[in-house]
Amino acid sequence: MSKLRAHLLGVLVLLTGLLTTTGAQPASALPDDLWFDPAAAETLTVQNGRFTDGLGREVVLRGYNVSGETKLKENNGLPFASVADAKKSATALRALGGGNSVRFLLSWAYAEPTRGQVDPAYLAAATGQIRAFLDAGIRVYPDFHQDLYSRWLFDSDSWYTGDGAPKWAVDLGDYPDEYCGICPFWGQNITSNAAVTQATYDFWHNEYGLQDAFLDTAQKTMTYVKQNLTATQFAGVVGFDPWNEPHAGTYDSGQTSRAWEKDVLWPFYVKFRARMDAAGWQAKPAFVEPNLFWNANIDFQKQEGGLLDSTLGSRYVFNTHFYDQKAISGVFMWGKAEDGQYVGDFGTIRDRATATGTTAIISEFGHPLAGSVSDKAPTVYKAMYQALDSRVKGANWWANPASSGPVLSGSQWQWDIYNGRHHELMNDNPNEVQTEGDAWNDEDLSAVRLDDSGKAVLRQDARMLDRVYPSATAGRSLAFTYEDRSRDGSTTLTWNPVPSSLPNVAQLVGSGQYALQVWRSDGSAEPTELHLPASFPNASTTVVSDLGTVFGPPAYTRTTPIAVAAEPGGTGSRRLLLTAADSGALHYALVTNGATAPSAAVLSAARAELSSWMAAEFN
């Protein structure tokens, strides 16, 4: 969208309060919207290898998967028991977890319990819960989720269970009795359980018309969602993830994993893309995943892939997952994650997206919060978020910021408010009632739970989860880093200290958290936005920028270059707004909560140090 058109659209929204789309209900503003927000939220597209909003600003999506509850039967394949719970979760996700987006899980089994018939009650309930997040200012990309193909492949006394395909789809095949052998991890069923591998193979080869049935249901689901959201709400639905963690099941004779992606998986995505278009989702990208083992970090699990033979372009997003299998194994990685642990892995994801002509999102990442390897979780998560922010490790960042690469979007697994309070009959077995953790295959990864009063509380360090990140950049983001000072037990982890060559900057930051954003402006009147965590109240927030220096930033106005405002949605979350209306100029902004009433002299000296540093590093 051109800057002129975007500006005119913003004025139109401001004057009329109405923005209509054919076939949709009238749009309305969100609580705490500013003058530019409706136009910014009008659409999210992929341009020049970045997510961009309706104003052409670069967007970073950060948030969580909502949620593994969809895998369970207790709430009939929905993330929440009610819309009220969805609203509670959305508010907490924004205010406590700092998220601006969610991957919203859907179930094929409950969407189409009878072949050829979608369940309107399920679609209505799912859409109502999606609406709760959209109304809180949170963008949504739905995902038809599956793991191990279907729960109905598993015996009532099995050690494991699955989710995804309906019972009727399983009944069509004469699948062997499920058995995984010596499988201490549920994921081994993907390649070792013949029932899973054969059923999965049948889906990809459209045996019994299975794939056609799924595509029909997906189109009906997308049509329903579009028709039952307002124009503003539907604008917040940013795309669709067609199929979770695809794998061949078994390969044909002589077929490689790369050939399977090219000849089987990619044609499926092309078909799904056509169904999106038919359902009125033409302007929204498909968030397509490669073979799930393409970036495995254990050599014997890794398979060639990454959609190497496909050009995605702007109508698709390169969508992948990353779990540190070495750390999770408890065998292949002794000790904990360190500074820069995953910058290489996430750099590969950046490069793969660039090569396919699009942007990337890591739609699942995480680590167990209970069990024998849970002691690694604080460092693993910190290292993963560090790698999302930059492809340069903390120790090297100040000396090489220009190599940071784009800030990656990501959705942590997961945000389940029912964690530890489930009542799931595993494989419908009344003698196998699951209550602990995520209630699914002994997993426990939720960042949140409800306390005894019913209030949502974090299970992980808020310093690590609620982060500064550039949610919208007016121009081109060149480098970003965030030192969260998150904790591993009683130890504060500092992987990116301010160098001694910048003594006044180091004095300002002290032992506090800090972020530094460098960008090149594009002439926008609309501001660059950084999410401000709850740990950055105005009374302890300092900003040092070429745009000025501020301790305790003022409320936003169009003529205030450094300001704060609430984020849209009425959740109490906040943002830092940086307005630079010039074009092609380099800008920087350091934001920290480490200073206490800094003097004008220290602020000026820190600004001089940062200006000299930027001139040297981005000449």
From TrEMBL:
Record's keyword annotation contains Hydrolase: yes
SUPFAM superfamilies listed in its UniProt record: (Trans)glycosidases
Classification via InterPro entries: GH, Glyco_hydro_5, Glycosphingolipid_Hydrolases
The Glycoside hydrolase family domain, residue ranges: 86-399
Signal sequence residues: 1-26
Keyword Ribosomal protein: no
Swiss-Prot/TrEMBL keywords: Glycosidase, Hydrolase, Signal
Pfam family, one: Cellulase
Protein family membership: Belongs to the glycosyl hydrolase 5 (cellulase A) family.
Protein name: Glycoside hydrolase family 5 domain-containing protein
Species assigned in the record: Streptomyces umbrinus
Lineage start: Bacteria, Bacillati, Actinomycetota, Actinomycetes, Kitasatosporales
